[in-house]
Amino acid sequence: ALDVADGNNGTFPAATYAPGMVGDSFSFDGVDDAVFIGDPANLRITGGITLDAWIDPQDISEGQAGMIVAKWAGSTGNPAIGSDAYELLIAKQGGVIQLVGGIGNGVDSDNSGVVGGTITPGVWTHVAMTYDGANGSNLLYVNGQQVASRTRMGGIHSSNINVYIGRRDSMISPLYFNGRVDEVEIFNRVLAAGEIADIYDAGSAGKCPIPTPTPTPTPTPTPMADLVVTKTDSADPVTEGDQFTYTITVHNNGPNIGTGVTVTDTLPMLSSFFDITYDLNRPAGDQPLQTTARI
Question: What HEC string does the chain produce?
Protein backbone atom coordinates (compact mmCIF):
# COMPACT_ATOMS: atom_id res chain seq x y z
CA ALA A 1 0.00 0.00 0.00
CA LEU A 2 1.83 3.07 -1.25
CA ASP A 3 1.54 6.58 0.17
CA VAL A 4 2.07 8.92 -2.79
CA ALA A 5 2.36 12.03 -0.59
CA ASP A 6 4.62 11.34 2.40
CA GLY A 7 5.97 7.81 2.09
CA ASN A 8 3.91 6.33 4.96
CA ASN A 9 3.49 3.06 3.09
CA GLY A 10 1.39 0.32 4.64
CA THR A 11 1.42 -3.46 4.73
CA PHE A 12 -1.71 -5.60 4.47
CA PRO A 13 -0.92 -9.31 4.36
CA ALA A 14 -4.57 -10.37 4.75
CA ALA A 15 -6.35 -7.78 2.60
CA THR A 16 -6.93 -7.81 -1.16
CA TYR A 17 -7.55 -5.29 -3.89
CA ALA A 18 -10.86 -4.72 -5.63
CA PRO A 19 -12.19 -2.11 -8.09
CA GLY A 20 -12.33 1.18 -6.20
CA MET A 21 -13.64 4.67 -6.55
CA VAL A 22 -10.29 5.69 -8.05
CA GLY A 23 -8.53 2.72 -9.60
CA ASP A 24 -8.14 -0.13 -7.10
CA SER A 25 -9.24 -0.08 -3.47
CA PHE A 26 -8.63 -2.10 -0.33
CA SER A 27 -11.17 -4.88 0.11
CA PHE A 28 -11.68 -5.89 3.75
CA ASP A 29 -13.62 -8.95 4.95
CA GLY A 30 -14.56 -7.57 8.39
CA VAL A 31 -12.78 -10.47 10.09
CA ASP A 32 -9.01 -9.94 10.03
CA ASP A 33 -8.19 -7.62 7.10
CA ALA A 34 -6.42 -4.31 7.69
CA VAL A 35 -3.57 -2.11 6.46
CA PHE A 36 -0.80 -1.47 8.99
CA ILE A 37 0.79 1.99 8.76
CA GLY A 38 2.67 2.07 12.08
CA ASP A 39 3.66 5.09 14.12
CA PRO A 40 5.53 7.53 11.83
CA ALA A 41 6.42 10.85 13.40
CA ASN A 42 4.47 12.90 10.86
CA LEU A 43 1.24 11.13 11.88
CA ARG A 44 1.62 12.13 15.53
CA ILE A 45 -0.55 15.15 14.81
CA THR A 46 -1.52 17.30 17.80
CA GLY A 47 -3.11 20.43 16.30
CA GLY A 48 -5.35 20.61 13.25
CA ILE A 49 -6.23 17.43 11.36
CA THR A 50 -8.42 16.15 8.53
CA LEU A 51 -9.23 12.49 7.84
CA ASP A 52 -11.01 11.53 4.64
CA ALA A 53 -11.69 8.49 2.48
CA TRP A 54 -14.07 6.90 0.02
CA ILE A 55 -15.90 3.89 1.52
CA ASP A 56 -18.25 1.22 0.19
CA PRO A 57 -19.31 -0.73 3.29
CA GLN A 58 -21.25 -3.95 3.57
CA ASP A 59 -24.29 -3.84 5.84
CA ILE A 60 -23.58 -4.33 9.53
CA SER A 61 -25.66 -5.36 12.52
CA GLU A 62 -27.25 -2.99 15.03
CA GLY A 63 -24.61 -1.71 17.44
CA GLN A 64 -21.77 -2.93 15.24
CA ALA A 65 -18.97 -0.59 14.08
CA GLY A 66 -16.27 -0.65 11.42
CA MET A 67 -13.08 1.39 11.58
CA ILE A 68 -12.05 3.34 8.48
CA VAL A 69 -8.77 4.86 9.69
CA ALA A 70 -7.50 5.33 13.23
CA LYS A 71 -4.65 5.98 15.60
CA TRP A 72 -6.69 4.60 18.48
CA ALA A 73 -6.61 1.82 21.07
CA GLY A 74 -10.21 2.05 22.19
CA SER A 75 -10.00 0.04 25.40
CA THR A 76 -11.82 1.40 28.45
CA GLY A 77 -10.07 3.09 31.37
CA ASN A 78 -7.06 5.31 31.75
CA PRO A 79 -4.65 3.32 29.52
CA ALA A 80 -6.86 4.03 26.52
CA ILE A 81 -7.14 7.71 27.43
CA GLY A 82 -3.36 7.91 27.15
CA SER A 83 -3.28 6.01 23.85
CA ASP A 84 -6.11 7.40 21.71
CA ALA A 85 -5.41 10.19 19.20
CA TYR A 86 -7.93 10.20 16.31
CA GLU A 87 -10.38 7.85 14.60
CA LEU A 88 -12.96 7.79 11.80
CA LEU A 89 -15.44 4.92 11.66
CA ILE A 90 -19.01 3.90 10.88
CA ALA A 91 -21.54 2.51 13.37
CA LYS A 92 -25.13 1.31 13.11
CA GLN A 93 -27.51 2.99 15.52
CA GLY A 94 -31.31 2.84 15.28
CA GLY A 95 -31.08 0.85 12.06
CA VAL A 96 -29.00 3.56 10.32
CA ILE A 97 -25.29 3.40 9.53
CA GLN A 98 -23.74 6.73 10.54
CA LEU A 99 -20.32 8.34 10.43
CA VAL A 100 -18.48 8.65 13.76
CA GLY A 101 -15.37 10.63 14.63
CA GLY A 102 -13.24 10.57 17.76
CA ILE A 103 -10.50 12.81 19.15
CA GLY A 104 -8.31 11.67 22.07
CA ASN A 105 -6.97 14.54 24.15
CA GLY A 106 -5.16 12.46 26.78
CA VAL A 107 -7.41 13.78 29.56
CA ASP A 108 -10.87 12.24 29.20
CA SER A 109 -12.35 9.49 27.06
CA ASP A 110 -14.24 10.17 23.83
CA ASN A 111 -16.43 7.09 23.65
CA SER A 112 -19.43 8.91 22.18
CA GLY A 113 -17.48 11.05 19.68
CA VAL A 114 -19.20 13.16 17.06
CA VAL A 115 -21.91 11.36 15.04
CA GLY A 116 -23.85 12.28 11.91
CA GLY A 117 -24.88 11.57 8.34
CA THR A 118 -26.24 8.45 6.70
CA ILE A 119 -24.04 5.82 5.03
CA THR A 120 -25.75 3.51 2.53
CA PRO A 121 -24.30 -0.02 2.27
CA GLY A 122 -23.04 -1.00 -1.17
CA VAL A 123 -22.65 2.60 -2.36
CA TRP A 124 -19.43 4.57 -2.66
CA THR A 125 -19.58 7.44 -0.16
CA HIS A 126 -17.03 10.13 0.63
CA VAL A 127 -16.51 10.73 4.36
CA ALA A 128 -14.35 13.23 6.21
CA MET A 129 -13.64 14.60 9.69
CA THR A 130 -11.85 17.81 10.63
CA TYR A 131 -10.62 18.92 14.04
CA ASP A 132 -9.14 22.29 15.00
CA GLY A 133 -7.10 21.96 18.18
CA ALA A 134 -7.05 25.73 18.68
CA ASN A 135 -10.81 26.17 19.13
CA GLY A 136 -12.02 22.57 19.54
CA SER A 137 -14.17 22.61 16.39
CA ASN A 138 -14.86 19.02 15.31
CA LEU A 139 -16.85 18.53 12.07
CA LEU A 140 -18.08 15.56 10.03
CA TYR A 141 -18.77 15.54 6.28
CA VAL A 142 -20.59 13.04 4.07
CA ASN A 143 -20.41 13.46 0.29
CA GLY A 144 -19.01 16.95 0.61
CA GLN A 145 -21.69 18.23 3.01
CA GLN A 146 -21.27 18.95 6.72
CA VAL A 147 -23.47 16.58 8.72
CA ALA A 148 -22.36 17.07 12.34
CA SER A 149 -20.38 19.40 14.57
CA ARG A 150 -19.27 19.74 18.19
CA THR A 151 -16.63 21.43 20.32
CA ARG A 152 -13.99 19.25 21.99
CA MET A 153 -11.19 21.11 23.71
CA GLY A 154 -7.75 19.84 24.60
CA GLY A 155 -6.11 19.22 21.24
CA ILE A 156 -4.95 15.79 20.06
CA HIS A 157 -2.92 13.53 22.31
CA SER A 158 0.55 12.66 20.98
CA SER A 159 0.14 8.89 21.00
CA ASN A 160 2.54 6.12 20.01
CA ILE A 161 -0.35 3.83 19.05
CA ASN A 162 -0.12 2.48 15.49
CA VAL A 163 -2.15 3.88 12.62
CA TYR A 164 -4.33 1.37 10.78
CA ILE A 165 -6.74 1.43 7.85
CA GLY A 166 -9.61 -0.97 8.36
CA ARG A 167 -9.24 -1.50 12.12
CA ARG A 168 -7.92 0.13 15.31
CA ASP A 169 -4.87 -0.87 17.35
CA SER A 170 -6.72 -3.05 19.84
CA MET A 171 -6.51 -6.79 20.30
CA ILE A 172 -9.72 -6.84 22.37
CA SER A 173 -11.97 -4.86 20.02
CA PRO A 174 -10.27 -4.01 16.69
CA LEU A 175 -13.57 -3.11 14.92
CA TYR A 176 -12.60 -4.58 11.55
CA PHE A 177 -14.17 -2.82 8.55
CA ASN A 178 -16.26 -4.93 6.15
CA GLY A 179 -16.21 -3.52 2.62
CA ARG A 180 -14.01 -1.43 0.39
CA VAL A 181 -11.93 1.63 1.33
CA ASP A 182 -10.16 3.92 -1.11
CA GLU A 183 -8.18 7.19 -1.23
CA VAL A 184 -7.50 7.43 2.52
CA GLU A 185 -5.79 10.65 3.57
CA ILE A 186 -4.59 12.19 6.82
CA PHE A 187 -3.86 15.92 6.61
CA ASN A 188 -1.99 17.81 9.33
CA ARG A 189 -4.32 20.79 8.92
CA VAL A 190 -8.02 21.57 8.86
CA LEU A 191 -9.36 21.45 5.32
CA ALA A 192 -11.98 24.07 4.57
CA ALA A 193 -15.49 23.00 3.61
CA GLY A 194 -14.80 24.00 0.01
CA GLU A 195 -11.71 21.82 -0.16
CA ILE A 196 -13.63 18.80 1.10
CA ALA A 197 -16.38 19.49 -1.42
CA ASP A 198 -13.74 19.64 -4.17
CA ILE A 199 -12.42 16.21 -3.18
CA TYR A 200 -15.94 14.79 -3.31
CA ASP A 201 -16.65 16.50 -6.65
CA ALA A 202 -13.44 15.03 -8.12
CA GLY A 203 -15.05 11.59 -7.77
CA SER A 204 -13.36 8.87 -9.78
CA ALA A 205 -10.75 11.33 -11.11
CA GLY A 206 -9.21 11.20 -7.64
CA LYS A 207 -7.29 13.75 -5.65
CA CYS A 208 -3.92 12.10 -6.28
CA PRO A 209 -4.04 10.85 -9.88
CA ILE A 210 -0.89 9.26 -11.26
CA PRO A 211 0.78 12.00 -13.29
CA THR A 212 1.31 11.43 -16.99
CA PRO A 213 5.04 11.59 -17.60
CA THR A 214 6.17 14.46 -19.81
CA PRO A 215 7.80 12.95 -22.89
CA THR A 216 11.43 13.85 -23.38
CA PRO A 217 11.69 15.91 -26.57
CA THR A 218 13.84 14.45 -29.30
CA PRO A 219 16.76 16.81 -29.76
CA THR A 220 17.14 18.38 -33.17
CA PRO A 221 20.47 17.23 -34.56
CA THR A 222 22.98 19.96 -35.30
CA PRO A 223 23.94 19.93 -39.03
CA MET A 224 27.44 18.58 -39.34
CA ALA A 225 29.84 18.04 -42.23
CA ASP A 226 33.07 16.08 -41.73
CA LEU A 227 35.50 17.42 -44.34
CA VAL A 228 38.84 15.79 -45.18
CA VAL A 229 41.31 17.74 -47.34
CA THR A 230 44.22 16.05 -49.12
CA LYS A 231 46.85 17.61 -51.38
CA THR A 232 49.15 15.92 -53.91
CA ASP A 233 51.57 17.22 -56.55
CA SER A 234 52.15 15.93 -60.11
CA ALA A 235 55.94 16.02 -60.27
CA ASP A 236 58.68 15.83 -57.68
CA PRO A 237 61.32 17.18 -57.92
CA VAL A 238 60.56 20.19 -60.16
CA THR A 239 63.18 22.19 -62.04
CA GLU A 240 63.13 25.93 -62.51
CA GLY A 241 60.73 27.02 -65.27
CA ASP A 242 58.62 23.86 -65.21
CA GLN A 243 54.94 23.72 -64.60
CA PHE A 244 53.56 21.38 -61.97
CA THR A 245 50.10 20.64 -60.63
CA TYR A 246 48.73 20.47 -57.09
CA THR A 247 45.54 18.40 -56.74
CA ILE A 248 43.50 19.29 -53.67
CA THR A 249 40.65 16.90 -52.86
CA VAL A 250 37.92 17.77 -50.38
CA HIS A 251 35.98 14.73 -49.15
CA ASN A 252 32.85 15.08 -47.00
CA ASN A 253 32.23 12.15 -44.63
CA GLY A 254 28.85 13.62 -43.76
CA PRO A 255 26.33 13.17 -42.42
CA ASN A 256 25.15 16.51 -43.83
CA ILE A 257 25.96 18.50 -46.95
CA GLY A 258 28.77 21.00 -46.48
CA THR A 259 27.83 24.54 -47.46
CA GLY A 260 29.86 27.74 -47.57
CA VAL A 261 33.14 25.78 -47.59
CA THR A 262 36.27 27.74 -48.53
CA VAL A 263 39.61 26.03 -49.21
CA THR A 264 42.70 28.23 -49.11
CA ASP A 265 46.08 26.97 -50.33
CA THR A 266 49.28 29.03 -50.22
CA LEU A 267 51.74 28.41 -53.07
CA PRO A 268 55.37 27.77 -52.22
CA MET A 269 57.82 30.67 -52.35
CA LEU A 270 59.30 31.52 -55.80
CA SER A 271 56.31 29.96 -57.59
CA SER A 272 53.51 31.72 -59.41
CA PHE A 273 49.87 30.80 -60.06
CA PHE A 274 49.07 29.65 -63.62
CA ASP A 275 45.45 28.42 -63.69
CA ILE A 276 42.86 26.30 -61.86
CA THR A 277 40.35 23.67 -62.97
CA TYR A 278 37.39 22.14 -61.14
CA ASP A 279 36.23 18.58 -61.86
CA LEU A 280 32.41 18.39 -61.73
CA ASN A 281 32.32 14.73 -62.69
CA ARG A 282 33.75 13.35 -59.49
CA PRO A 283 31.55 11.22 -57.18
CA ALA A 284 29.55 13.05 -54.60
CA GLY A 285 31.72 13.86 -51.64
CA ASP A 286 35.02 14.13 -53.55
CA GLN A 287 35.56 17.56 -55.13
CA PRO A 288 39.10 18.07 -56.49
CA LEU A 289 40.63 21.43 -57.32
CA GLN A 290 43.59 21.33 -59.72
CA THR A 291 45.94 24.25 -59.37
CA THR A 292 48.81 24.76 -61.87
CA ALA A 293 51.77 26.79 -60.81
CA ARG A 294 55.09 27.77 -62.44
CA ILE A 295 58.46 28.10 -60.75
Answer: CCCCCCCCCCECCCCEEEECCCCEEEEEECCCCCEEEECCHHHCCCCCEEEEEEEEECCCCCCCEEEEEEECCCCCCHHHHCCCCEEEEEEEECCEEEEEEEECCCCCCCCCCEEECCCCCCCCEEEEEEECCCCCEEEEEECCEEEEEEECCCCCCCCCCCEEECCCCCCCCCCCCEEEEEEEEEECCCCCHHHHHHHHHHHHHCCCCCCCCCCCCCCCCCCCEEEEEEEEECCCCCCCCCEEEEEEEEEEEEECCCCCCCCCCCCCCCCEEEEEEECCCCCCCEEEEEEEEEC
